[in-house]
Amino acid sequence: MYKPWPWPGKIGYMKQPIVLSDRLESWLTDGSAKTLAGLNHVFAEKSMGIVYFVLMFPAALPLPTGGFSHVLEAIAMLVSVQLIMRRRSLWLPKSWRKKELTSLKRPRTIKFLTKYVRFVERYTRPRLRGFMHKDSVLISIGCMMFLFALASALAPLFSGIDTIPAIGAVLMALAIIFDDFVIMLAGLLMGGIGIAVVWSADAALIKLLLKL
Hints:
Helix content: 55-70%
Mean pLDDT: 79
Distance between the termini: 59 Å
Radius of gyration: 17 Å
Shape: globular
Number of domains: 1
Number of strands: 0
Strand content: under 5%
Low-confidence stretches: 1-17
């Protein structure tokens, strides 16, 4: 039985360093149902960043999702709104809490997800933690996370460009989890490029449809 990590106080505060990849891999492979409620319980107050990270990760993969990622992106936008509101715990409708995230049971997804997190863990560390804990900064991060998830959802179907803003969204979530200002800057850069690419693609598509 997992016990939530002891993270009182502000989002991002932790008494001891976390090994996110180990904790995540253990949860993904323990045979239990992979629900948002389970994810929220296992990762306690860090759930804001981790739930958003897990929701946006499928869209960041260069793999077809059959439109399922759009459902996850909608939930991710709700999570980002709660971050903007400075909620200390994640709220989700009861029907969403029990919804199983089937994509997290795929061996390929588990392997890619844990490998990605371990790679990030090698280079991340708390940088400008005090700045990252400011309410204004967390609200701004929440706004960016909402925009990146929205851009990913609005990308033309089967274009593959939804991965660009999704990668930015994933990096922003990791910045919250690890209190890393540098990762946040990388997320802003990638997400900003993604918004510009999606905007250009949507504009070109609308122009083409109007001509037809």
